[in-house]
Predict the 3D structure of the following.
Amino acid sequence: MTASPSLSVDGDRLWLRLMRLAEIGALPGGGVNRQALSDGEIEAWRLVIGWGRAVGLAPSTDPVGNLFLTLKGADPGALPVLAGSHLDSQPTGGKFDGAFGVLAALEAVTRLHEAGVTPKRDIAVVAWMNEEGSRFAPGMMGSEVFAGVRSLDAIRAVVDAEGIAVGAEIDRLHAAFPDVPQRALGFPFAAYVEPHIEQATMLETANCPIGIVAGIQGKKTWRIVVSGEKGHAGTVPPADRRDALAAFARIAARLYDEIGAGDDDMRFTIGRVVVEPNAPSVIPSRVTFSVDLRHPDNGRLDAAGALLERICRDGAGRCSVDIVPLVDAPSNGFDPVIGDLIEASAVARGIAFLRLLSAAGHDARHMAPLAPSAMIFIPCRDGVSHAEEEWAEPEHVTAGANVLLDVISKLASE
C-alpha cells in the first residue's frame, strides 16, 4: 500500500510541534539558541523521541550522536529510506532551520502509521549531529562522519570555546538515553530526502511554495592566524613593529578586492575576527579570523581558494601566517529521479514549484555520494535565516511536509 495525494499530513499538529520545539532554547526576540550536544539538544531529543515512540517509531543512535526514529517496513532485508535534517541551531537562530526538516519527516511517517500504511522499506527520520558548526567547528559533523568524510576520532577531539570536547559531549548525550540502542556508523540506505527552508528569496519572489533543489554550491572555509609581536603603542617605532592587525587589514582589503568583488556568484565572507591582546594601548600580537568562500563552479572555487592562500602569505609582511583549511566541500548535484518525484507530487497537489540551486550547505551534500538524495525547499520570509526573525508560513510548512510524504512513500514502496 502506498500513499497518494488523498493522504495528507496534519498541518496543525506539525505547526504546534515546531512551536513546542522552539521553546527549548527560546530567546526573548522569538528565536532559538539550541547548541549541538548541549542540554537543550538533549531536551529536544527527549521530546522528539517521545513523539516518535507514541506512534511506534523505534529510536536509535550511532557513535557520532546522530538520532534515528524508524518506522518498520515489510521487508527487513530492504535498505531504509532516510528523511530529516538537524535539531541544533545558531546562537541567535530561528524556529525553522533544521527543525522543520526533522519534524516534517516525523509528521509524514506519523501519518503513514496512522493510515495503516506499511511500506516495503523501513523509513527512518534522522536528526544529524552538529549541522550548524556554531559551538563546534566545522559543522555537519554527524553527516560527515556517517559518510566517511571525517573520522570519528578527529571529530571527538574537537573542543568548543570552553575547552569541552565533542567526544565528552557525545558520551554525555548517550548516557542521557541509556535505553536508546546504538547502530552501526554509516549503514547503507536506499535514498535520502531533506526538507528545509530556502534561506534565500527565490521561492518567495516567484510565489512558489515548493523548491526542487538541483544541488548545493561548493564551499571552502579556513581559520587563519596572523602572528606578530605585542608592544607599547607609544614607544615602539613603526619600523620595528610586527603589528598583526595591520597585516590582517592589508590581507582583508586584498581578499575583498580580488576575491569578494567582480563575480556575482562568488560568496566571500570574513565572519569572525579575534584580536589579541585587544587592549587600547598595546600593538596587537595575534589576529585569528575565519573565511567562508562559496561558488557553484568548482573550478572557480578552487582558483579562488588558491588565490586566498597566496594573498594571506604575501600580505603578512613581518608577521607570520598560519592557514588552516576547515571545510572543502565541492558543489554537488542531487538525484534527478527524486527531483521528478517532488515535481509530480507538487503537480498532483496543485502546488507551484521552482527548480533552483542551494546557496547554503546542508547535510544532504554528504548523503548524495552514498545514495540517491534530494532536498525540498519551502520559502522563508525575506530570505532571513540564522536570525531570530526567521519565519516560514504555516501553509508552506504543510505543503513541504505533504510533498515529503508523497516522495518518501513512493521511495519506500519500491
Observations:
- The first helix runs from residue 11 to 21.
